[in-house]
Write a structure and sequence with these properties.
alpha/beta, Alkaline Phosphatase, subunit A, three-stranded antiparallel β-sheet, nine-stranded mixed β-sheet
């Protein structure tokens, strides 16, 4: 997404007006205050010594029952006589469960021991609104006010001071999940268009402000110089790194492959980020779910496999774990439009060389339902807790999540 600072349509305005207009815009654009990436020793230390968490959000409410298919259960096929995945098509992972046939990349990772599937994830008193449900997953605090995201709070806890480029959000707009006190995220979608621009009316003002970067008596002016310099440095680094990246891995087609390829490029370049957050939309399959979900799974299956292969090739496979989630599952019964409607519980997925592969938790019953919905068996914050404590090494997980939840052993 192009970062474009706008100002008044006049060729003459005061330095005070310039500060007020552009300071907020630069911060809102996700620009960190300290020197970023290549020139920062602190950033390189973070990259060299720290584990990395990548979060992939499947936006729209992915249908978990046609992702991880309970292919031995008659209740599944009675509820889904048309859209149910037939046993001979399922990619069988165990005697009870298998994957959608288009998730060949995930099947390979599972059989290599690099994929964990956590059954029945949700939270008490669930909400079926996309906006509300996603807010709860982003903050990690369902049905309660919270402005910071769970990734942002984790970053603040792990690194409780301003540091360069700790959080990167590859998306068209910033996710609430990465909202942070100390670590404004670097946000971009298209690296080639990620730049800090100013129109002609700002040219003289920028030149005047940036002409002398030594500290002055004006703290506001010094701050704008740092923000502007950081924006220029970060955008140039992102554009160059993503454009120059070369890989033999096939990320397939579509936006999710592009996003994960760019994350791989930044990891290889030791960008300094500890957290990468991206999303892949289109999973609200009320109508004609079978072809729509099949196409989405083609993309995400190939992309995650290619990303893991790149991590291995660059020698970083022990440094990175990927968490995949969606805001809610779908109802058990297929609808009249050969789709599924908003439901509650569904699986979460964790990928990586350090992951304890296999199934975790209890699959919800398909016969004992809550008004047609699966009943959750795992609080999603238990999975977050594993990422926070087991993977990122935060001892007091409850301080990040605002409470204690059942422990899951997902990391070896």
């Amino acid at each position: 997404m192009k970062k474009h600072i706008k100002t008044m349509n006049t060729k003459s305005f005061s330095r005070r007006q310039f500060l007020e207009l552009n300071l907020g815009a630069a911060v809102a654009a996700g620009v960190s205050m300290s020197p970023l990436f290549g020139g920062s020793a602190a950033a390189r230390e973070i990259a060299d010594s720290g584990r990395i968490l990548v979060v992939l959000e499947l936006s729209g409410g992915n249908d978990g029952l046609n992702t991880v298919v309970p292919y031995t259960q008659d209740e599944y096929y009675r509820a889904r006589p048309t859209i149910g995945i037939q046993p001979d098509a399922v990619l069988k992972l165990s005697d009870d469960f298998g994957l959608h046939p288009n998730l060949l990349g995930w099947e390979r990772l599972y059989k290599d021991g690099k994929m964990a599937i956590v059954h029945g994830c949700g939270y008490p008193n669930p909400n079926r609104s996309h906006f509300e449900a996603m807010k709860f997953w982003h903050t990690g605090v369902p049905n309660a006010p919270e402005s910071r995201g769970w990734v942002g709070r984790l970053a603040d806890t792990l690194i409780p001071n301003e540091a360069s480029g700790v959080v990167m959000n590859i998306a068209t707009e910033q996710s609430q999940a990465v909202s942070s006190t100390y670590h404004p995220p670097v946000v971009f979608s298209d690296p080639a268009a990620y730049r800090l621009d100013n129109d002609e009316s700002q040219t003289d003002a920028f030149a005047s402000i940036m002409s002398n970067r030594s500290r002055s008596a004006n703290s506001n002016l010094d701050f704008v110089r740092r923000v502007t310099s950081t924006a220029a440095d970060s955008s140039e680094f992102v554009r160059r790194t993503c454009a120059d990246y070369r890989t033999n891995s096939d990320y397939g087609y579509g936006s999710v492959g592009t996003s994960l390829r760019n994350i791989a490029a930044l990891i290889e370049a030791r960008a300094g980020a500890r957290f990468y957050y991206t999303n892949f939309a289109g999973f609200d399959t009320h109508v004609s779910q079978a072809p729509n979900q099949a196409g989405l799974f083609n993309q995400v299956g190939d992309a995650v496999l290619a990303f893991q292969a790149d991590l291995k090739n660059m020698g970083r496979e022990d440094d990175v774990v990927m968490l995949v989630f969606t805001e809610f599952g779908r109802r058990v019964q297929e609808n009249a439009s050969l789709g599924t409607d908003h439901g509650v519980a569904g699986p979460m997925y964790v990928f990586g060389n350090r992951v304890k592969g296999g199934f975790h938790g209890e699959h919800p019953s398909l016969s004992v339902l809550d008004q047609g919905d699966l009943i959750m068996t795992t609080d999603f914050r238990s999975v977050y807790g594993s990422m926070i404590g087991e993977w990122m090494g935060v001892q007091d997980v409850g301080s990040v999540l605002g409470g204690d939840f059942a422990h899951l052993s997902l990391i070896s």
